[in-house]
Amino acid sequence: MTQLMTGVLVVIASPGYTAEERAAVCDQSNDWNINNGQRARIALLPWL
After folding, report:
1. Separation of alpha carbons 40 and 22, rounded Å
2. CB-hemisphere CA count at 13 Å for 6?
3. Which end of the chain has the least Cβ crowding within 10 Å, N or C?
4. For residue 1, what pLDDT is reported?
5. Is there a domain that residue 1 lies in?
């Protein structure tokens, strides 16, 4: 079944030496999508 959702582009900008932190932000946005996205009808779209 399809569902209309709003995509929110999350631009992640940081210095090059923060690769672990950028990965953590992506992981957290994916966790948020899994736990809240369908109910809120919002999908966070991380862009590095």
Report:
1. 24
2. 6
3. N
4. 78
5. no
Helices (H), 1-48: 19-32, 38-40
Q: How far is CA 30 from CA 17, 37, 44, in A?
A: 22, 9, 7
Contact 36, 43 (CB under 8 A): no
For residue 18, give its domain range: 6-47
Residue 37 backbone dihedrals phi, psi, to 5 degrees: -60, -50
Task: Report the C-alpha gap between 20 and 32 in whole angstroms.
Answer: 18
Of 16, 17, 15, 14, the residue nearest 46 (C-alpha): 14
Residue 28: inside a domain: yes
Task: Count how many domains the chain has.
Answer: 1
